[in-house]
Amino acid sequence: MSKVELSLLPTLLTLGGRVECARCQALSKRTRRQCSAPAVRGKRCCRFHGGRSTGAKTPEGRQRCAAAKTIHGRENTAMRQERSLASARLAVLESVGFEIGLLTGTRTRGRKPEKMDQAFPELSAMVRRLRFIKMPPA
Question: What percent of the chain has pLDDT over 70?
Fold first, then answer.
């Protein structure tokens, strides 16, 4: 992959070249070109790329923002945690199946869930014991 050198122009001439102002430092994901709008005074980005945003200032506002962090409107933190625990349960069951010889073939791709020990603690402990014993194939 070739290395692309970015040159961000710090200023922009507006009003027919009579006013010099800071230029928005945002880049297009698609074309990798710099935004051509002037930045908001005292900020690095224009109003379209978040220059006017100040974020929550009060502790209550920050708590509301933390509680509302969702990818989209159909999902919340509790739903994500439940799905994570369900995938951990499946991963534990899969590892048990491979250790006792019930399952053969390729394992599920990707990294294993972080909550595997929380899903089925007794099964996770059994898998660890089986790995150390190394049962002979049936």
Answer: 86
